[in-house]
Amino acid sequence: MSELNAAASDVLIIGGGLIGLSIAWHLADHGIHAVVLERDTVGSGASGAATGLLAPVTASGRFGHMVDFGIESLQYYSEFLSFVREESQQEIELQTAGLMRIAIDSGAEAMLSKFDNWPHAKSLEMVRLSATEALSIAPYISPDVRGAVISPMERQVNPRTLLKCLRKCCMKRGVSIIEHEQARSISDISGSGNKRAIRVRTDKEDYCFDALVIASGAWSADLGRTLGYALPVRPMKGQVLTALPGTTPHNVQFTVYGNHSYIIPGDDNALLLGSTSVNSGFDTRPTLKGITDIVASTAQMMPSILDSEFQHTWCGLRPATPDYFPILGRLPSWDNVFVATGHYKNGILLTPITGKVIATEIYCGDVSPLIEKYRPDRFCSSN
């Protein structure tokens, strides 16, 4: 795509979660006015239901290029939050003690040993601990612990506060945010080459633009079909619950991760416990099975959880792709349609870097090497 005329350009972003807002905010750096179109309210999807864990390894569940991408975003987070705090004139809660990965069984213990030779372990300031050392600084974890790794750079942000502040920053930068309008159809013109989207119709009115971004999370597949392109994004229900201390104080400082679950210290001594990953369509109802699975898993890491007072539970829909990697960049066969979806469990972590690389590609056509493995064309071609 040729460089846009910043004075006259208008970018329509479908999706008002953190990813969509981050793209709009970064576009404003290039002098490009963006309109964010949200089917419900800002943050009503995965962003508003997330726990905000900023942990590249635990979020991906594996080493490799996705972890590298997550670390790039993690390293950019401090600068990103600094700008957002300054512009919004509001503090954003950031848990700074870091993350403790613990091993309860031999398989998890073998996994922790991989960090000894992992190239990024030094940049994340990771430290291996024996079972005795882990219990000495975190006496609340299970006495069956076999070892741990402390990772002080992997933190947790309050996603709801970040949403509120980023929305405020976007509006200060001239971004138009329109809620309760769902995109129903997309009109295009075709020439001798690629197609070009020119108009989005909602139930209320039509929106014209120079470039279009699909950042609608779990709802992206429908828009892909409208464009004649398969975007294989499906909703995966994630359930989380909060608990308050019982007779035994928690005194949890670190986010504790292990056994495919996590325990995050929250406000007022509450704990965030998560999470499930269930393929149940667009059903967002919390279930008793979700609660019992989370409690059973986290109690293995921290037995005193069972003495806690249940407070609240909720669900969100994570946008998942077949390979669990995001879909980022310009849509093949289209001159001006870009995609930023499928972040699965990594949406909060990847918010800053996604906004930056997509905005840059829209503005001047430069494709970041960071997203080469996440291009839309890896999932076949247009229908």
Structural class: alpha+beta
| Beta-strand proportion | 25-35%
Separation of the first and last Cα atoms: 22 Å
Number of domains: 2
The CATH topology of the largest domain turns out to be: FAD/NAD(P)-binding domain
CATH class of the largest domain: Alpha Beta
Mean pLDDT: 91
- Largest sheet, strands/sense/barrel: 8 strands, mixed
Low-confidence stretches: 1-9
Q: What's the arrangement of strands in the largest beta sheet? A: 6-7-5-15-16-17-14-18
Say how many strands there are.
20
**What are the secondary-structure elements, in order, as H or E?**
EHEHEHHEEHEHEEHEEEEEHEEEEHEEEH
DSSP summary: helix tally: 10
Please name the CATH architecture of the largest domain: 3-Layer(bba) Sandwich
Summarize, please.
The chain has 383 residues and is of the alpha+beta class. It has helices at residues 18-29, 46-49, 56-60, 65-88, 106-113, 131-137, 159-172, 220-226, 288-301, 351-364; strands spanning 10-14, 33-37, 53-54, 94-95, 99-103, 127-130, 147-151, 155-157, 176-178, 185-190, 195-201, 206-208, 211-214, 234-244, 255-258, 261-265, 271-274, 309-320, 327-330, 337-341.
How would you characterize the overall build of this protein?
It is a single chain. The protein is an alpha+beta fold. It has two domains: 10-50 and 160-233 and 323-379, FAD/NAD(P)-binding domain (3-Layer(bba) Sandwich), CATH 3.50.50; 96-153 and 235-320, D-Amino Acid Oxidase, subunit A, domain 2 (D-Amino Acid Oxidase, Chain A, domain 2, 2-Layer Sandwich). Helix content is 28%, strand content 26%. The chain has helices at 18-29, 46-49, 56-60, 65-88, 106-113, 131-137, 159-172, 220-226, 288-301, 351-364, and strands at residues 10-14, 33-37, 53-54, 94-95, 99-103, 127-130, 147-151, 155-157, 176-178, 185-190, 195-201, 206-208, 211-214, 234-244, 255-258, 261-265, 271-274, 309-320, 327-330, 337-341. It has an eight-stranded mixed beta sheet with strand order 6-7-5-15-16-17-14-18, with helices on both faces. Strands 9-2-1-13-20-19 form a six-stranded mixed beta sheet, with helices on both faces. Helix 1 (18-29) packs across helix 10. The model is unreliable at 1-9 (pLDDT under 50).
